[in-house]
């Protein structure tokens, strides 16, 4: 107990030091950006307003966090606060995984290649040895264990929120994370947590639909189309507002494994596209609460 509090104090002091350095070095300026829309008889038009947003100039920070167990070390990590152009700040992302992490990998590659204007600054997992966590370590991305269980030394929900704040996380991407997201996290990150589900929600969603169970149920139902859904996360399984979907055919002789592979292929593209839109602030909330993605190429087109 004592050792743990000493550790968390150390982490907290280290991170405060980093934040103090950041404040000194950054020449921040205030810009704004958000949107509201005006609804006319037959169409919906959008109007851009500007709100407060921090755009920091390029700041180099040397990070040296040295904690054990729940928050693994992140040494000599060059965190660069960047401007993505057009006054849009580069975003900081946390990805949550429980398994192989192929979606995590495809998003990470897109950030490295600049197709997503953000950086994955931390990986959260309930399975320390999963493929996603191994990939994070190999890529120099810090790993946080969550939640705390009898078997694992994970963080509590409150400590997780504090840790994500210390990493200055803007958005959270659930990518095959199987645990329920606690209310504390949802309240701390409103309209900022996305999940990917391998069926066309609201069909085949909810607590009992995960992994191959989803694809088996789709085939058994006789549905001719399936495909991934990206949705915002609320306090229930798979019920948050739908942001993006891609239809994939279900073929006559499909097995669950074959269908899963076809859907997963589309997941990788769709999640990258949705994350790119999130980071570029191209998600607009319609008056009825439905989120839409504004096209990068044609700002008058929404999907
Ligand atoms: C994906 O099918 C995703 O839709 C679901 O979990 C799976 C994760 O796969 N939520 P991976 O770990 O990204 O390969």
TrEMBL record:
EC numbers: 2.1.2.2
Gene3D superfamilies: Formyl transferase, N-terminal domain
Chain segments annotated as coiled-coil in the UniProt record: none
Class of this enzyme: transferase
One Pfam family named in its UniProt record: Formyl_trans_N
All residue ranges annotated as the Formyl transferase N-terminal domain in the record: 91-275
Listed GO biological process terms: 'de novo' IMP biosynthetic process
Record family assignment: Belongs to the GART family.
Name the record gives this protein: Phosphoribosylglycinamide formyltransferase, chloroplastic
Gene name for this UniProt entry: LOC104594138
């Amino acid at each position: 107990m004592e050792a743990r509090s000493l550790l968390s104090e150390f982490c907290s002091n280290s991170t405060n030091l980093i934040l103090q350095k950041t404040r000194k070095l950054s020449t921040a300026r205030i810009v704004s950006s958000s949107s509201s829309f005006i609804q006319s008889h037959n169409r919906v038009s959008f109007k851009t307003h500007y709100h407060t947003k921090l755009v920091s100039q390029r700041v180099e920070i040397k990070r040296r966090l040295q904690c054990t167990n729940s928050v693994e070390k992140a040494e000599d990590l060059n965190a660069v606060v960047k401007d993505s152009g057009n006054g849009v700040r580069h975003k900081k992302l946390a990805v949550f995984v429980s398994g192989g992490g192929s979606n995590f990998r495809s998003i990470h590659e897109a950030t490295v290649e600049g197709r997503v204007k953000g950086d994955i600054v931390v990986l959260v997992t309930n399975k320390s040895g999963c493929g996603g966590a191994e990939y994070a370590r190999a890529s120099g991305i810090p790993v946080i264990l969550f939640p705390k269980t009898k078997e694992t030394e994970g963080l509590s929900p409150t400590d997780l929120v504090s840790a994500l704040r210390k990493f200055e996380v803007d958005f959270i991407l659930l990518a095959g994370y199987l645990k329920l997201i606690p209310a504390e996290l949802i309240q701390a990150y409103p309209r900022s947590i996305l999940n990917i589900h391998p069926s066309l929600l609201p069909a085949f969603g909810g607590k009992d639909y995960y992994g191959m169970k989803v694809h088996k149920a789709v085939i058994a139902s006789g549905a001719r189309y399936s495909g991934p859904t990206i949705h915002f996360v609320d306090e229930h399984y798979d019920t948050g507002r739908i942001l993006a979907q891609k239809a994939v055919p279900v073929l006559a002789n499909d097995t669950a494994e074959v269908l899963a592979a076809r859907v997963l292929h589309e997941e990788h593209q769709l999640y990258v596209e949705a994350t790119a839109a999130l980071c570029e602030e191209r998600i607009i909330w319609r008056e009825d609460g439905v989120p839409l993605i504004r096209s990068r190429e044609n700002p008058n087109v929404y999907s």
